[in-house]
TrEMBL record:
Pfam families: TauE. It is a multi-pass membrane protein. It comes from Paracandidimonas soli. Belongs to the 4-toluene sulfonate uptake permease (TSUP) (TC 2.A.102) family. It is found in: Cell membrane. This is Probable membrane transporter protein. The keyword Membrane applies. GO terms for cellular component: plasma membrane. Keywords: Cell membrane, Membrane, Transmembrane, Transmembrane helix, Transport. The keyword Transport applies. The chain crosses the membrane at residues 30-55, 76-96, 102-121, 142-168, 180-199, 206-225, 231-250. InterPro entries: TM_pro_TauE-like, TSUP.
Length: 252
């Protein structure tokens, strides 16, 4: 039953990530529910959802250079790589009991970010001058560094954070932002997963099966995305996130 639970969680997490995001709202609580320590549950769930970032990048590869980037792409990749590594090292070094107490709050924050993201993104878009040129600012680099470190430590909500950062940085094309979001998320998560493996933070009892289930869920989600209104999807994911957050507070 434990194995079935985590497989189903990974499958539906793949669906969520394909249609709107929020897959970690399912994988982390499911692994905790079957007795995996929170630090290992976080790392294992991140590994299971990793391939989806690159499949998304490949699907939108033509949009990556649809507009000029505010800073060189190589520099953004470097920042994402270093930030993801630092975040993963923090996860290795943190006291497991401290992370246990943080996990429900991190899940709550990720859920709230997902919930209020449309409002935040609209506000950013309205406050921007559409004709303003892209600027390679220190603020954008610091922001990307902070988000990358967060993503290496706790992956939940990373996509929404990157989209908000890109909007602030002056991007106008949503397709370019989504393509870049998938690329940088995949890179920083890959570095983080390598460090998780080296630090023995992966529960291999579930990891490979969850990875396959998430891939299948991602394929199914790509089909469902065209059938279900986006507002309904977002509302459902927020409810799932709140329910799983409540479970984590009770469980931990």
């Amino acid at each position: 039953m434990d194995f079935l639970l985590v497989i189903l969680a990974a499958f539906f997490a793949g669906i969520l990530n394909a249609v709107a995001g929020g897959g970690s709202f399912l994988t982390l609580p499911a692994l905790v529910a079957v007795g995996v320590p929170p630090v290992l549950a976080n790392a294992t769930g991140t590994l299971a959802l990793l391939p989806g970032y690159f499949s998304g990048t490949w699907a939108m590869r033509g949009d990556l250079h649809a507009e000029r980037h505010p800073m060189p792409l190589k520099r953004m990749v470097l920042i994402a790589t270093l930030g993801g590594g630092v975040g993963a090292l923090l996860l290795i070094w943190i006291d497991p009991d401290v992370f246990r107490s943080m996990a429900p709050w991190l899940l709550l924050v990720a859920t709230l970010i997902f919930w209020f993201a449309p409002i935040v993104l609209r506000s950013i878009a309205q406050s921007q001058d559409a004709a303003a040129p892209h600027e390679n600012t220190l603020k954008a680099q610091v922001g990307l560094t902070a988000v990358s470190i967060y993503g290496g430590f706790f992956n939940g909500g990373i996509g929404i954070m990157l989209l908000a950062l890109f909007s602030i940085s002056g991007y106008q094309s949503l397709n370019t932002m989504n393509s870049l979001k998938n690329l940088l998320s995949g890179i920083l998560t890959t570095i983080a997963v390598v460090i998780y493996v080296a630090g023995a933070l992966i529960d291999w009892q579930y990891a490979f099966a969850m990875l396959v289930a998430a891939l299948l869920g991602g394929y199914a989600g790509g089909r469902l995305a065209r059938l279900i209104p986006r507002s309904v999807l977002r509302a459902g994911i927020v409810l799932i996130g709140l329910a799983m957050t409540a479970f984590m507070f009770v469980r931990l």
